[in-house]
Design brief:
single chain; 8-stranded mixed beta sheet; 7-stranded mixed beta sheet; 14 helices
Length: 516
């Protein structure tokens, strides 16, 4: 993990490998942002002109490197990162703009030992944004790279030096190290970014290594390290307990399923939240096999469980005054002679029977059992997180997750929280008329309904397993959980850690009683 500290030195006197400054897009060319004053002075007041001559415009995410002048700075390289349009008069840069800019700069500095970030830091919120962006942008996943054995003396060539490591150290310039709010902002950002990156690691881990049992072991070890209670139900306990949904999905695999319960409690907590995560460690589709081209990235189908796990640990590290229980419904969906078949009927943990029309609609089955179990403890609210439907990706694209809920005010609060922390989301309805499309002549309900509005149908299915009177929301993160395109801002290629920041902020708001 990249180290992050608040620097007491000024931009002109600190020693680092690179100094990062912000540049905005003005009406007549690039405009230097606050924090770049000392750097501009070293360039005799001509830094904006130099950047303009190099083709820099200040567009969001744009990165321009240039050598530092011979005098005036103690760093060899200056990196100017674009912040987009200049804010309106007396307004500050948006926190998400700062987060993305810091992330873009950190991504451009992979392999660098130390970089100083002199971006606009008007208040503690800006400190949080820049710190988060830098730590998230510095992320790399190299666990499976660079291990090739060398012939001969084993030294290899310069080209064989292995993958670039993340930026090792970030210094924030312009913050106040002795200010309690600034110090707390950095501490919070470090915890949250660390846990987002843990979720990313899990999503990126190949499914031959991250089986349900292995995921449960990772969660158990981290929980114990952070004072979180853990309980793991193996396949024998799941069969004995009547978890027909989880077992129905997992019984076709040689890697049996698990249900993991993580419990963080605070002695002064007045509220309890339950987070439920879909954890399909690999989704082949089962007997309803996915076609070629649709299964290569299905290691990411456990991203919801990764987000829940990371969020519970973050709540514990932050010592939030709220009880948070995480439920990880872990299974591998594979075809075999023992796998559930289309037409089979499963008896869920709730006692409700489900006719399985499509074994590739498996996430709702494991979540159904976990939602019922979570409801037994009567929490103040339940939020489930899942890479649930391709229909949601078609509706909202690959950067926005959908929010459904049985309470409009709660749905609105989660939407506002997600937008506040920089996670794109959109509230979605649960149309009652779609429920009847899941009617089954054989069972209480089918696991499929009409194709159009499939993401909403899935939400309606999950609602069937939420305890009466319990506030509940469903986050379908199928789009943003795994990024297949080029990296941007603080978002890497691969696992993104989607929903972690939203869940943590929801827990914070609940702890302080500020939830609308």
């Amino acid at each position: 993990m990249t180290a992050l500290t608040l620097s007491t030195a000024g931009a002109a006197t600190l020693r680092a490998d690179v100094l990062v400054v912000g540049v905005a897009k003005g009406p007549k060319g690039p405009v230097l942002a606050a924090g770049a004053e000392a750097v501009d002075k070293a360039y005799d007041g001509k830094l904006a002109g130099v950047l303009d001559a190099l083709g820099a415009s200040g567009a969001e995410g744009e990165v321009t490197k240039l050598p530092a002048p011979a005098a005036g700075l103690k760093v060899p390289v200056v990196l100017a990162v674009g912040l987009g349009s200049v804010p309106e008069k007396e307004e500050s840069f948006d926190e998400e703009v700062l987060r993305r800019a810091a992330g873009a700069a950190a991504r451009a500095l992979h392999g660098t030992k130390k970089a100083a970030f002199a971006l606009p830091l008007d208040d503690a919120s800006a400190v949080t944004a820049v710190a988060e962006g830098a730590l998230l942008g510095a992320y790399t996943f190299t666990a499976y790279q660079g291990g090739e054995k060398k012939a001969g003396n084993g030294k290899g060539s310069a080209k064989d030096s292995g993958p670039k490591q993340p930026l090792a150290e970030v210094l924030l310039v312009g913050a106040k190290p002795r200010d309690k709010e600034h110090k707390a902002a950095v501490e919070r950002a470090t915890v949250v970014a660390t846990e987002v990156n843990v979720a990313r690691d899990l999503v990126n881990t190949p499914p031959n290594d991250l089986t349900p049992e292995a995921f449960a072991a990772v969660a158990s070890a981290a929980a114990k390290e952070n004072g979180v209670k853990v309980q793991v139900l193996d396949e024998k306990a799941l069969v004995k307990g009547g978890y027909g949904g989880i077992m129905g999905v997992g019984k076709g695999s040689e890697n049996p399923p698990r249900l993991v319960k993580l419990t963080y409690t605070h002695p002064k907590a007045e509220k309890t939240l339950a987070f439920v995560g879909k954890g399909i460690t690999y989704d082949s589709g089962g007997i309803s096999l996915k076609p070629a081209g649709h299964n290569e990235t299905m290691k990411c189908d456990m991203a919801g469980a990764a987000a829940v796990f990371a969020s519970v640990v973050a709540a514990a590290k932050l010592g939030l005054r709220v009880n948070v229980t995480g439920w990880l419904a872990l299974a591998e969906n594979m075809p075999s002679g023992s796998a559930t078949k289309p037409g089979d009927v499963l008896r869920m943990y709730s006692g409700k029977t489900v006719e399985v029309l499509n074994t590739d609609a498996e996430g709702r089955l494991v979540l159904g059992d976990a939602l019922t179990k979570a409801s037994e403890e009567n929490p103040d609210a339940i939020v489930d997180v899942a890479t649930l439907t391709g229909a949601m990706v078609l509706a909202l694209g690959d950067r926005t997750f959908g929010i459904m809920a049985n309470d409009d005010a709660f749905r609105t609060s989660i939407h506002e929280i997600a937008e506040e922390v920089g996670e794109s989301s959109w509230p979605m309805p649960l149309p009652a008329e779609l429920r009847k499309t899941m009617d089954s002549p054989t069972a209480d309900i089918a696991n499929m309904g009409v194709r159009m509005g499939g993401g909403l149908v899935a939400g309606l299915f999950l609602q069937e397993f939420v305890g009466e009177g319990i506030t509940w929301a469903h986050l379908d993160i199928a789009g943003p959980a795994f990024h297949e395109g080029a990296p941007h801002g603080y978002t890497p290629k691969g696992g993104t850690g989607s929903a972690v920041r939203t869940l943590v902020r929801l827990a914070e708001r609940t702890a302080t009683g500020d939830l609308g």
